[in-house]
Each structure stands twice: as structure tokens, then as C-alpha cells.
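step 3/5: co-fold with iron/sulfur cluster
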Amino acid sequence: MKKPANYLHDPSITIVTGVCPHDCPDTCSWQVAVDKTGRAVDIWGHPDHPITQGRLCGKVDRYLERTYHPGRLTTPLRRIGPKGSGRFEPISWEDACATIAQRLQQIVAEYGAEAILPYSYAGTIGLLQGEGMASRFFNKLGATRLARSICAEAGIEGYLYTMGAAEGTDTQAFAHARLILIWGSNTLTSNLHLWPFIQAARRMGARVVVIDPVRTRTAQAADEWIALRPGTDGALALAMMHVIIGEGLYDADYVERYTAGFDQLAERVQGWTPARAAAITGVPAPKIVALARAYATTQPAAIRVNYGMQRHFGGGMAMRTITCLPALAGAWREYGGGIQLSSSGYFRHLDRTELHRPDLLAGRDPRWLNMNRLGDALSLDPERLARACYHPRPVDRIPAPSHAGPPVKALIVYNCNPAAVCPDQQAVLAGLRRDDLFTVVLEHFQTDTADYADIVLPATTQLEHWDILKPYGHTFLALNRPAIAPLGQSLPNSEIFRRLAAAMGFDEPCVRESDEEILRRFVEEQTHERFANITWERLLREGFVRLNLPEQHRPFAQGGFPTPSGKCEFYSERMARDGYDPLPTYTPPKWLAGDGQVQLSVESGETNLPMPGSQHLICISPPAHSFLNSTFTVVERFRAREGEPSLLIHPEDAVARGVADGDEVSVSNERGAVTLRARVTEDVIPGLVVAPGIWWAKFSAGGRNINQITMQDEADMGAGALFYDALVTVEKMTPVETLASAAIMAPDPS
Ligand SMILES: Nc1nc2c(c(=O)[nH]1)N[C@H]1C(S)=C(S)[C@@H](COP(=O)(O)OP(=O)(O)OC[C@H]3O[C@@H](n4cnc5c(=O)[nH]c(N)nc54)[C@H](O)[C@@H]3O)O[C@H]1N2
Ligand SMILES: Nc1nc2c(c(=O)[nH]1)N[C@H]1C(S)=C(S)[C@@H](COP(=O)(O)OP(=O)(O)OC[C@H]3O[C@@H](n4cnc5c(=O)[nH]c(N)nc54)[C@H](O)[C@@H]3O)O[C@H]1N2
Ligand code: SF4
Ligand SMILES: [Mo]
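step 4/5: write C-alpha cells
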């Protein structure tokens, strides 16, 4: 058994406390056993952390295999083959930094600093190795700013309109709920550490309902699975409110004291009969009525809503609408009631100005480009570049092509693998192939993206560097200490940007500050009362500290919503000003309303999930259980666990296409095509196909993955991504096609 006790009396072992850096709500604290030679020999979940509870997930439990993987990049590299070929030669750090500085200076002189695009996401969500030192570097440079819209933006914006901040029910509180709705979330895959609290609630009699178009492992483990068509959650929530208000089941006292716009809401939902919602969602009307009644009459009732349901065109509005439910039912009153999307709002008072140093912009106001439109951003067509300019709300206009700014001439990628994870892969790759584009990639591995770099820089992993982590699924701030020395010549992102700053001749003291210095000062300079109990010494000693919040925290039990009105806003002035309907409404997904290709039959209110009325299927690509986005794909063990890139398809849809389980199928639309292995299963609703992701393209047939078929278009809010809103055609591959696609299968890079 892996327990710190195994090592406590072993003088040859040092135990180092750290925290998982990955883009996952759980932000687990861990302990690492390091032997006398400085090698990490074991890793396990921190036994004292109230959320981690001594357990890591199946991926990070094997973190040492990733860290010591033979494919780790250990030296800077310069490309010697064509872009995409993956042919490189080692160079020194001095050469690498000098080459980069020279190219960036040339580009600044010729096109201006906005021709440089930093491109990063959440390879690590650490404050320092994420955007800390990088922000200082790019602010000083005056580079284009990246709108980080690829994951959560639509949902977060929707939540904020109703609630004011991304604050909600504590993870620990779920143990006290009597009814739990898991809404658009695959807890057992993507938020594992919530599950023990849900199980504790079930032991006390709680019922768990999963609302998802897929019978995921979470839905299988729940008491009830409510299958709905993707992107129709808003209609379901409106009909639930119709029932709750119509039957007088709402908490009139809570509504009166702590909400704004009830009368308008009541009027709005009057037309949202369960029959109408049934025709849209595919959930039978009696089920909607039963769900609404159960929700309003069971206290405490908790909702775990996650990002799966907001990767559709109406995702922002759907989240805004669902988020009205707890206030209507008065669910906030009790410990264990309410809703959780993200805990990030609890950290919003963390002062990060010193960390990011926006003052280094010195009055410049560089453009923002939307990361979901990387394909357009890298285009030399000014009209497409203009479309990539960030315009998150209806009132924000796309600039005229003449005002879109310079073409992107340099791309600096860190903590991200855009060649695999970005929508519209063909457009992204066309950009990355441009010979006049100078691309630098900071990475652990030779990813799909690194294959297109001019210079690749080897980065350290969480076992090798300092950081502080701010979770988005609970409220424990955590410190990461390095457990081992950097592998080979790899360096922390922070040190790489320090070296690049020096090569560029930046002389601010802040670009020379050491990691420990930055983090210590960051902690010491916080003044908000929420951080009153968090000191550098405590973090060093204990590894993690909960924010200064009451033990059994009941947010909004007595209102106090951080909205403009101070109330939960059923009616939102701010939405009206931003160009939205100020009341909850249903905004259909693109697959349904988009180009009119698919028409549902809506005559009967009692329909049960009819198929789209054409040969098209809706395609979604949620996380594979053993990967974290594209991060663990490189490790053989995890690839073996996932099998191969596959497509879950309902038997009716399979039969209609002559597809049998195990057949190779081509999944395509006007943007591209990908080859996947069909898995025929009733775990997906008819009309929907599911391609678990995200495989590296180079591990996929023909070097193409599921982002071949996804689109760059923005969601209704926050310019969010529309990964789950694509229509596709699925066809069985002929034996000749199968052979051809196998022949061009890219070699294993590891
Ligand atoms: N193992 C693992 N864990 C992860 C990740 C990973 O890749 N692997 N990724 C991490 C990241 S970056 C994120 S953002 C989170 C994501 O965490 P989640 O949001 O929980 O994950 P998703 O799988 O994107 O979405 C959850 C579910 O939404 C369902 N869904 C899709 N469309 C709809 C819809 O329209 N309505 C409803 N009700 N449900 C819908 C999907 O079928 C899926 O089961 O997970 C994080 N954790
Ligand atoms: N089709 C489809 N596409 C999707 C999604 C989907 O559901 N379907 N999900 C989307 C979502 S929710 C997200 S969040 C994005 C995620 O997209 P990304 O943020 O690009 O996530 P990863 O693919 O895991 O890539 C992170 C990379 O960062 C590297 N990395 C990790 N730590 C460090 C570090 O300390 N330094 C450096 N330099 N590199 C590091 C890892 O090796 C890895 O290659 O993908 C999106 N793409
Ligand atoms: S990926 Fe998530 S569940 Fe796994 S160890 Fe990291 S934080 Fe915990
Ligand atoms: Mo994400």
C-alpha cells in the first residue's frame, strides 16, 4: 500500500509535498518520495487534504511514468526539416535565446509588437508557470493579447450574469444534499474527487440524477439518467421553472428578499410548457414535471453543472438560465444546497497585478485575439484576421479588415497543444505551415504543435519547479515544491521567459526575480480578508490552506449576490446593455438552428429523442477517461487503456449506415474528415455520435484527429468554443480506404 507511513522510517527517502498542475477542478495535493540519488520513486495523494483524501486519479497516480518518459524533451531544438516533419537538431540555450530574440526584434521593427502572438492555455494552471512570468514578458513586449476562450468562457459569462461571481456550493457540502443533479458533467472522469461526497450523501438517502446525452460512467453509477439532445438544456430549465412557478413550489420568501425580476421571469416561463420543452430536448414531458417537482421540494438540493453543456451555441444562455433554479427554489438556504460551476470566483480578490505587471504595457493597448480562431488569426487574409479579433458580446463589433492590425508573424506557444486541441484543425495547420511564421514551442514532449516549431524549448514538469495553484473545484490554495532537479537541460517556463527577457535586453528587475521570491512576495502582499489565514510559512509547512471562509459555508443563504443589484438577477440590466435578452431564454444550438440542415419533428410533446431529420449526426468529443485533454496521450499505458481513437454510435444509426461494431468509419463535414473505430452502443442517444478526446493527431489515422470537424465559430457568450455543436456524416470505410489511411498513419514519436 502506498502510504507515507511506508517511508516515514526510511532514512534514504525524502517526502516532498506538491500539487497536481493539470486543468482539472480537483487540484489534488500530492506527496512524492525521492530517493538518495534524487530520483522520484513514488507519488500518492496527500492523506491530509480534505478533498484529495489520499487518492490521485488513475492518470496522475502514474505521473512518474510521464515525468521520466524517454520522449521527454531535454535540450533546446532547431528545426531542420520542413514544418510538420518533426526533424530537429539540438542547440544550446544561448543559441536558442539569441535566435528567438533576434527574430522577435526584427518582427517588432518591421510589423510592430502586435505581430507577436503568445498562445497558451492550461498545461499547468499554476500562477507562476501558467501566466506569471510570461505575462511580464509579453506586457513589456506589447505583444497581442490572447483571449483564453477555449474552455469555460460561455458558461462562466452566463453564470456571472445571474450570480455576479463564480462562487457557489462547496464540494464538501455535497455530502449534505438530499438531491443532486449532475448536469453536463462526467464526474467520475473529470471531477473524480467530488464523487466521495456524493456517495456520502447517497448513504444518507440522497438521489443522484445525471442530465447528459451520453450514458457516461457517471450516469451509469447514478440513480437516474435523463438523456437530452445536446445544446437543449436551456429549454429544460425553462420548463422546470414553468412547473415550479405554475405549481407554486418556489420559495416566495427567498425570491422576494434576494432576487430581482421574478414577475418578468414568471411571465417568460409561462409559455414554456413541459410539452414544448419535450419536443426540443427529447425528454418526455412527465419526466420534466417530475424532475421540477423533485428539485423544488427536496432540500437541500445541489446542482453540479459543468462545462460539457456550454460547448454549444446557446451554452452561455443555458448556463445563465440553469443558474436561476437554486434561487427560485430557495436551495441556497441550507448547507448542501445551491449550484457549483467553478470555485474560481472565491479567488477573485487575489491581487495579481504584481505577478502580471500590466503597468509594463506603459499605456499601450494591444489587440486581443480569440484563441478559438487560431486558424483565422494565422491567416494572411485581413478579413479572416479581423474575425479573429475578440468580440465576445453582441455589442462588440468585428473591426474592419483595415483595422485588424498586423498579420501574426511570430507565435510563442506554452502550456498548450493547439495543433491537436484547437477547432478547425485544417485551418490551424495551414497557418502553422506558413514559412514566414516564426514559431517557438515550450514543451515537455514533441507534440503535434512542436512538430511545426522553428525552435522547441524543453520545459520542466511540476515535479521540477515551484508554483502556487488556485483550484477551480474547491477552495484550498496549494504550494508546489520541486521534488527533483530539472531533467536534462529543461527549465521552468518562468526561467525560460527570464532568459528570453535578458536576451531581448529588458532591464526591469521584475524579469530577473527568482521563482521563490515571486511566490513569497505574491502571498505576502495579499490584503483581502479571504487570504487572511494564508501565509508563506503555512504554505511551506502544510502545503495547502483553505481560504478564510466559514466552516459550513452557506453562500447566499441570506442573499448578498455580487451582482449590480446585489440580488440573484432573473432579470439582468447588464445583459440588456450587452445586447442579450435580459431574461432567461432558450438559444438553440447551431446544429439545430444553424444552417437549417436538421429539422426536428415537433408535433408531439411526448416524443422520445427523435433522430435529426437528415443523414447528419451531431458529434461531441468530451474527455477520454485516461487522458487530460491531450496531455497523457504520449504515455503508452494511457493509450493502451483508451484503445484507439473511436466513435460511439447508436445501433439505429449504425444499422442505417451499414456500420458494425469495430468497423473503421470516416467522420466528416465541410471542414475535414477523421477516421475512427466504430463502437456501437446504446449509451449514446440516437442522432448523436461521441468521439472521446483528445488524441494527438500523430497517433490518429492520417495524422488527423477529431478537431478536423469542429468549427471556429463563437458561442453566444465569451466567444466560447463550439466543440460539441458540429454536424457530421458517418460512413463506413471500404477495405481499400482503410488500407490507405493505415499507410499514412504517422509514426510513433516516442
Ligand atoms: N480525465 C479527464 N479529466 C478532465 C479532462 C480530461 O480531458 N480528462 N479535462 C479537464 C478539462 S480541461 C475540463 S474543461 C473539464 C471538463 O469537465 P466536464 O465539463 O465534466 O467534462 P465534459 O466531458 O466536457 O462534459 C461533461 C459531459 O457533458 C456532456 N454533454 C455534452 N453536451 C451536453 C449538453 O448539451 N447538455 C448536457 N447536459 N450535457 C452535455 C458530455 O456527454 C459529457 O458527459 O474536465 C477536466 N478534467
Ligand atoms: N474536440 C475537442 N477539443 C477540445 C476539447 C474537447 O472537449 N473536444 N476540450 C477543450 C478544452 S476544455 C481545453 S481546456 C483545451 C485544452 O487544451 P490544452 O490546454 O492545449 O491542453 P493539453 O492538450 O493538455 O496541452 C497542454 C500542453 O501543455 C504542456 N505542458 C504541461 N505543463 C507544462 C509546463 O509546465 N510548461 C510547458 N511549457 N508546457 C507544459 C503539456 O505537455 C501539453 O502538451 O482543449 C480544448 N479542445
Ligand atoms: S488530474 Fe485532477 S484528479 Fe487527477 S491528480 Fe490532478 S487534480 Fe487530481
Ligand atoms: Mo477545459
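step 5/5: annotate
The chain has four domains: 5-67, 87-146+353-471+490-513, 154-341, 590-743.
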